[in-house]
Amino acid sequence: MLVQLSHPHRQVEIKGPKRTKELLRELNLVMEAHLVIRGDELVTEDEMLADADQIEIRPVISGGSG
Amino acid sequence: MNCSKCPTSTRAVIGLPRHNAAFCKACFTTFVHEQVARAIKAFKMFAPEDRILVAVSGGKDSLALWHILLALGYRADALYVNLGIGAYSEESHRKVRHYADTVAASHGAKLLVHVVEQEAGAGIRELATILHRPTCSTCGTIKRYQFNRAAVEQEYDVMATGHNLDDEAARLLGNVLHWQNDYLDKQSPTLPASVEGFAKKVKPLCRLSEREIAAYAVVNRIDYIVEECPMAKGSKMILYKEVLNRLETESPGTKQRFYWGFLDKQTTVAPATESMAEKDQRTLAPCTTCGQPTTAGTCSYCKMMAKAKTAAHPRA
Ligand code: SF4
Ligand SMILES: [Zn+2]
Ligand SMILES: [Zn+2]
After folding, report:
1. Which among B10, B52, B98, B134 is most buried, taking Cβ atoms within 10 Å?
2. CB B110 within 8 A of CB B96
3. What is the ipTM metric for this complex?
4. pTM score, two decimals?
5. According to the CATH classification, is domain B25-285 in 3.40.50.620?
6. Closest CB from A30, A37, A64 relative to B249
7. How many angstroms is it from B232 CA to the middle of ligand 1?
8. Between A33, A58, A64, which is nearest B229 by CB?
């Protein structure tokens, strides 16, 4: 599956099928700091992602001091 | 995972370990609205007839806040401050304008804009260089000043910012690590208009985590800027948030217990010293140049603008 990441903006190819939780673990990302979006729908951590899926992992942490 | 609220098995879009729940789109939107309504009530933020000014940046928190307040039927306009940080400012400005035109306008809400370059003659990064100050602190002074000025001059009852549970928990951690007692006073979700010239300030998203707000934006198709302000890179706040999120992952509810616990103690333990409002009344007086309350004779914003102008026209 094609996985789009941010900060910096990039794409990686990951072998499916795989649960959201496992995908994040494999990329060393914390669930609490990210959303996983398939197409344009949000998915939960136990969702099974298929090889043909378009996935976006979106960081949710922002950090300016203002 | 199925929605824990729907009687029929509807697919959940988000699991919320700290609430021991999972929600479908509709139930999640309701959950978010309820959390905001509870914060507004518990901290006496504003009444249905009040006029609210939302500070928007184009990011998820502030646009979601504007969206939620309009959905709950409040009279909420917004102010965007264009900082003049190249592509980041252009893109965030575009997102805010798009939201204002496509969604807010249909609620009769309007967008106010302040462009830093127009008043100061330079963007925030150039100003920071001229003033020999960190960009974020220059930015903080300008934003605080402009939001307060707009709220007071245009007679809004209250100014609302998109600070969320993660922002407040991270700030609390930083303040506690350095025992910044003075700042602890200012961490309440409602700050009263302590003196003439200061707007009342509220944080209606203080019960929601950063992840919940981003999820709300995705579910409700709010087009926000995902990229960060380039100046935020490597900030202490991000580090504190990462630490808190690791704790949260190990034991869900940590952030909430930390920040809400602090707020509980703040209200039950009577303040030993004078209240924030009393202190403000004792120490603040109108700025000699612009009239906004300040502890110095001339406020830090007016000092900044004066320096910026001398740097631009050294002989004048
Ligand atoms: S990161 Fe710094 S410069 Fe950027 S918006 Fe936040 S406070 Fe301003
Ligand atoms: Zn539901
Ligand atoms: Zn002034």
Report:
1. B52
2. no
3. 0.95
4. 0.94
5. yes
6. A30
7. 6
8. A64
